[in-house]
Design a protein that fits this description.
This protein folds into two domains: about 170 residues, P-loop containing nucleotide triphosphate hydrolases (Rossmann fold), CATH 3.40.50.300; about 70 residues, no CATH class. The protein is globular and about 45 Å long. The strands form two sheets. A six-stranded mixed sheet has the order 6-7-8-3-9-10, with helices on both faces. A four-stranded antiparallel sheet has the order 2-1-4-5, covered by helices on one side. By secondary structure, it is α/β, with parallel strands linked by helices. The chain is built from nine helices and ten strands. Pfam families: ABC_tran. InterPro entries: AAA+_ATPase, ABC_transporter-like_ATP-bd, ABC_transporter-like_CS, BCAA_Transport_ATP-bd_LivF, P-loop_NTPase.
């Protein structure tokens, strides 16, 4: 029996001010699966996540999230983001989206849904135990690693079925990145959450992800098993350096 699809992109093109940045994307994320989007800066990875979350409108194609298909073309990002969040999509943006003047605990409480399914703060602290000692500090005073943990913990409070994480490793040491990726693996296994993560530490993320999509110039060059891509250095080189 095939795994349950949480996300399907079919022929998706999207961009800004009428100019496409990503072109004809096909991508699937299933329950409990970690898929990584990798590629050089400007390849379209972040735009892809923003399109999935509803912040960037489609120019063509369809996005199916938890069995609901959208071909949204209008610029109504607030409404579309809200609808997808209610269907079970959580997005940790590149800037982490924290309220830096509030404490860690206050940031977590803001992430708690008022009704519906949720994950307890106690549970997310089991995934991110380092946060327990810093929850009374302002988020702006936390280290980069602590801020990323806080952002991911807050996203998980809504018990998302699909988690989008943009530039997980931004400004972080490889040791912290490896730790955070391990937590994502635990979350996917324990909760069945499908995870789509943009990551620059290629070798680290390929060790954890189930599948990888290699992007170049707004298109997907490879979509398959992460282990297979790891064994094809020439394809990785093509994705990052082109055909030169």
């Amino acid at each position: 029996m095939s795994a349950e699809e949480l996300l399907r992109l079919e022929g998706v093109s999207a961009g800004y001010d009428g100019t496409a940045v990503v072109h004809d994307l096909d991508l699937v994320v299933t329950r409990g699966e970690i898929v990584t989007l990798i590629g050089s800066n400007g390849a379209g990875k972040s735009t892809t996540l923003l399109t999935i979350s509803g912040l960037v409108p489609l120019m063509s194609g369809t996005i199916t999230v938890l069995s609901t298909t959208s071909a949204q073309r209008r610029r109504n990002p607030t409404g579309e983001v809200w609808r997808r969040a209610r269907r079970g999509v959580a997005h940790v943006p590149e800037d982490r989206g924290l309220f830096f003047d509030l404490t860690g605990m206050e940031n977590l409480r803001l992430g708690q849904p008022r009704k519906g399914d949720s994950v307890s703060i106690e549970q997310v602290l089991q995934w991110f135990p380092q946060l327990s000692a810093v929850l009374n500090r302002r988020a702006g005073l936390l280290s980069g690693g602590e801020q990323q943990m806080l952002a991911m913990a807050r996203a998980m409070l809504s018990k998302p079925q699909l988690l989008l994480v943009d530039e997980l490793s931004l400004g972080l040491a490889p040791m912290i990145v490896e730790q955070l990726l391990s937590v994502l693996r635990t979350i996917a296994t324990e909760t069945g959450t499908g995870i789509l993560v943009v990551e620059q530490h290629v070798q680290l993320v390929l060790d954890v992800a189930d599948r990888a999509a290699l992007m170049r110039q707004g298109r997907i060059l490879f979509d398959g098993a992460a282990a297979e891509l790891k064994q094809r250095p020439e394809l990785l080189e093509s994705g990052y350096l082109g055909d030169e």
